[in-house]
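To illustrate the input format used throughout this study, we show a single complete record. The first block contains the structure-token representation of the backbone; no residue identities are included at this stage. The design step must infer an amino acid for every position from geometry alone.
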């Protein structure tokens, strides 16, 4: 991403499927694994989903300020699930503010326009939705309604979504079709969606039950 001063900063997202693993039967934070830390160090800001962390976990990553959002742990669950983490390079901390967390499945933070020399404040969205059918999926609010409310609130200021919907669409288009056809007098500098190659299209014939919510939000 480029600011008005042509200064580039990078934002990445990764579903890490648990921030901890066992090496030689020792519970180890993946941030301490060189192959992982070297990839994350390439980003100025990174968003991690499915950390599977609880407030008791002590996590550090040299050179970064870390902010987490924990999913409430069920009394019957053997460990924590879900969970989000955002890492920001220390040199950028003064330009970023984290908004009040109102749900365990998403986080908003703002990149200040003055600090980053942007035309407007940029609101960044880190999101994870547990798979349909999981016990936690039945316990939460209508998350798509909450997402739409937030997008409506911040869209005038500009937003950037980093998402993990877990919404399998099978062979249904997961992008806006025929969006190259529009009225040039109405739409200015519109960027047409690109149809990306999908490697596993033929292997998944079922459609996620939340497909309708996903499509509604994207339209």
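Output of the design step:
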């Amino acid at each position: 991403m480029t600011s008005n001063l042509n200064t580039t900063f990078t934002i990445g997202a990764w579903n890490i499927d648990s921030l901890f693993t066992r090496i030689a039967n020792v519970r180890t934070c993946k941030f301490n694994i060189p192959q992982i830390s070297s990839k994350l160090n390439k980003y100025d800001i990174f968003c991690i989903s499915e950390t599977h962390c609880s407030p008791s976990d002590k996590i550090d990553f040299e050179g970064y300020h870390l902010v987490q959002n924990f999913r409430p742990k069920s009394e019957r669950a053997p460990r924590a699930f879900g969970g989000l983490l955002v890492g920001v390079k220390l040199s950028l901390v003064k330009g970023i503010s984290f908004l009040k967390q109102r749900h365990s499945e998403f986080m908003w933070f703002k990149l200040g326009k003055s600090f980053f020399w942007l035309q407007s404040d940029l609101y960044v969205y880190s999101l994870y939705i547990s798979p349909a059918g999981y016990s936690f999926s039945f316990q939460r609010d209508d998350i798509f309604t909450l997402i739409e409310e937030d997008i409506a609130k911040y869209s005038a200021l500009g937003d950037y979504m980093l998402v993990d919907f877990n919404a399998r669409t099978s062979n249904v288009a997961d992008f806006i079709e025929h969006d190259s056809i529009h009225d040039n007098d109405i739409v200015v500098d519109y960027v047409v969606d690109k149809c990306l190659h999908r490697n596993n299209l033929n292997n998944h014939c079922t459609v996620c039950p939340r497909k309708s919510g996903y499509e509604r939000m994207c339209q």
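Structural context for interpreting the output: The chain is about 15% helix and 20% strand. The mean pLDDT is 80.
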